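Give me structure tokens for this 355-residue protein.
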Amino acid sequence: MERDWHYGENCGGRGEVIKIPMENKLKVTLGVIAYNEEKYLPDLLDCILKQSYPAELLEIILVDGKSEDKTYEVMKNFEKKYSQFEKVLVVTNEKRTQPAGWNVVIRYMTGDILIRVDAHALIPENFIENNVRRLESGEVVCGGPRTNIIDENTAWKRTLLTAEQSMFGSGIAPYRRESKDEVKYVKSVFHAAYRKEVIDKVGMFNESLLRTEDNEYHYRIREAGYRICYDESIVSFYQTRNTLKKMIKQKYANGYWIGKTAWICPKCLSLYHFVPGAFVISILATGCLSLVGIKCFFRMLLGLYGCCCGILTLLCFIKERFLLSNLLLEAIFPILHISYGVGTLKGLVEGRCDE
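Here you go.
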């Protein structure tokens, strides 16, 4: 029996539905790349079906990285079932990596605009419309806040979500949290939308960067003289890793590619990217000093970090209405920081060796 991959109303919140006349509207290419995303991809495809932007002006390019689950089947089912779009194209990414997948999308796109959406994401009904409206206003690259969500409302997953949403746990990139400014210019955005003229000038993604390809690409965009517009109304939602093990693996990989990227394109990174790595070095340095009898620095480091971690854990505990599992944040925060930091140091060493 064929499975129906169209899943209900789970699009991360419903935006205002706007009826748009097709005349003089831009053709949009929406790209999604995926590897083993059978669980999350159907909900994203459901969100795409509900978009307020005219389907006749939407080109959907789905790229599968030779998945080992039913991701490719989900994509082909969508391609066969829904003909209202200008085009639905399913392509295989032979190289499997993220930047290679986006380059596949670029090679096949025929739209005036490219919008990147992660397979782990959900988008409200006005997501494409809000991107197009911002680009029609004169901008060439835009994006907005990315809100983390969870797939089940359990105490443990709410705690993992709290860790990911906290500035102490995830970082200070503007797209990760709400901003007081409705529109501003930033260094990078998640789920970016690009006018084709930008892609034509800047070129393809760097396939040697497996986690930081967007940082480097957006750096090249800025170097080419373009600005990246952050618009508070362009909201999208991202599925938080649903286990601590997966979150640790994600943070380690993120840190690793920050370290590697430091040797390839250091200017596309910010100092805050290296804070976890500096923290791990501090632990190692003060730990070595304590072994030879100089223990004050190690104690000072642990004391200061412990106070910060304890205060932020307490604030999260109170903010989340005394959810008991949030007390575990005092252990989760250092685990995530050390994972990211160790990954960064390994990436720095390997990146140097590759030089």
